[in-house]
Amino acid sequence: MLEVSGLTAAYGQVTAIRDVSLSVNAGGILAVIGANGAGKSTLLKTIAGILPAVSGTIIFDNEDMTRRSAFDRVRRGIALVPEGRRLFPSLTVQENLQTAFASKRKGAWTLDTVYDLFPLVAERRQRRAGDLSGGEQQATAIARALLTNPKLLLLDEVSLGLAPAIIADLYSRLPEILAQGTGVLLVEQDVSQAMKVADSVYCLLQGATSLTGTNLAMADISAAYFGMEKK
Amino acid sequence: MNLLEPIVQGILLGGLYALFAAGLSLMFGVMRIVNLAYGDFAVLSAYGALVVVNAALINPLLALVVVAPAMALLGYVLQRTVLQRTLGLSPLPSLLVTFGLSIIIQNVLLLFGSADQQRLTLGDIDTASVTLPLDITVGVFPLGVFVLAVVILGVLSWVTAKTQYGRLVRAVSDDPDTVMLQGANPKVIYGIATAIAFGLVAIAGVAAGIQTSFSPSSGSMLLIFAFEAVIIGGLGSLWGTLGGAVILGVAQTVGAAFAPAQQILAGHIVFLLFLAFLPNGLSRRKVRA
Fold first, then answer.
1. Domain hosting residue A9, numbered range
2. Would the CB atoms of B178 and A105 count as touching at under 8 Å?
3. What confidence tens digit (pLDDT) does each residue in B96-125 have?
């Protein structure tokens, strides 16, 4: 469904990711792991179209997305839950969710079904998004992305700044999302959390691929994660 | 001294200011775009109506049917081609560009018109009046303008609060990049908002042209009144803008009742008092810088 090949992206003169190639299947889940500054978020931003690609291609559903605008990609089924949630603070929770209707995509996810998935969000629907706790904000951000009924969901650091119980609670909703045939590409610093949910793992080190595969041994992963030679 | 008369007249004058401030309230109050040429676009609309009136021999209200959509279109094109490029973290580029536009419009009007005061007229309606209870006489036209201002601000307020477009407008003023992630193009949202504001400024410009008079340089005074109304009312609150405009109008007419030469000054003093003691305006809504 998603085929990224030879993707390079940069902030001005500084190259953030180099020659990254990966693929995600419908209903599949790929975890991108790596240390701070490895280029994980940059990779998701480039796939979502917030950051332009310097070279390489992003093929989605057999269509070239590389030069398309971010909103066009959303309308074709790529949704990003951005780092730091990025809710609209002056809008209520429900209004935040309703902004996703701009994607004009219909499907399994409606206000009712996302409220069923996240009952806590349903309770807070009349609150201003700026007044929510971190976990509530993250759940709202995921719900908002789901309302664009994506074929591919990009999750950026869901666990950032949240308590372990809340993280586990959020991740426990993933199977229901995957059951809709949605592919998930998630970025995590928490390797064990990523390994628990993902079919396969992709490790970035200083913007380039250092390891990729399924059922990897922890020793190989930590070597790839920190860039050390194996003993 | 009977103050009832100037207060009623001031409320009606506030209607005219509210009409002016409605578009500005949307652009500046809700979307945080500063347009210093706003008053000059009102004057431009009045001249546009004058041209249409002279060419087609119709009354100014009918001329609005041409002028308002034309201004809305101009607003959309201007936003997409020029103003959009000035948006960013710093307010300075948009201040400079719209200040430049203001000077260009004033001088183009001087070039093709003259520096004389001009008027639009509706014939008998200009001077028609009705007598309200308590023996207060008000003009029919100012009364109509006031009602129109209330209706326009009501509709605008409903649109921003309840419709999908309104939600997206507020979302864009929070975070344009994230609006893209919802599948909407922020540039189109900005463009439509500017088109609405310019359509409203055309209506306000023509109304002011009938109620008072206009010249190529009268835009800057209109701009100040509109900004004052928006700020007294509180940024982001469209109903607050109506209240702000009425307060400004009443301050001017009551001020004029005491010192006829100091009408404008009285309005500015009330505005400064608000800045000093109620900087968030009537709506008291805290806003981000």
1. 2-226
2. no
3. 999 999 999 999 999 987 888 888 888 877
Judged by CB atoms closer than 8 Å, whether chains meet at A74 and B183 is answered as yes
Q: Is the pLDDT of residue B126 over 60?
A: yes
- Inter-residue contact B255 to B50 (CB < 8 Å): no
Please tell me the total count of domains within chain A. 1
Measured between beta carbons, the chain B residues lying within 8 angstroms of A88 are 170-171, 174-175, 178
A167 in a domain, yes or no?
yes
Residues of B in contact with A101 (CB under 8 A): 164
Query: What are the structure tokens assigned to B46, written together?
Result: 């009045």
Closest CA to A198 of A7, A27, A22, A6: A27
Q: Is residue A73 part of a domain?
A: yes
Question: What is the tens place of the pLDDT at every residue in A159-186?
Answer: 888 998 999 999 999 999 999 999 999 9
Tell me which residue of A3, A57, A8, A33 sits closest to A224, measured CA to CA.
Answer: A33
Asked if the structure places residue A231 within a domain, the reply is no
- Output the CA–CA distances (angstroms, integers) from residue A150 to A157, A184, B183, in the order listed: 18, 10, 11
A107 vs A180: CA distance, rounded Å: 9
CATH number at residue A156: 3.40.50.300
ipTM: 0.89
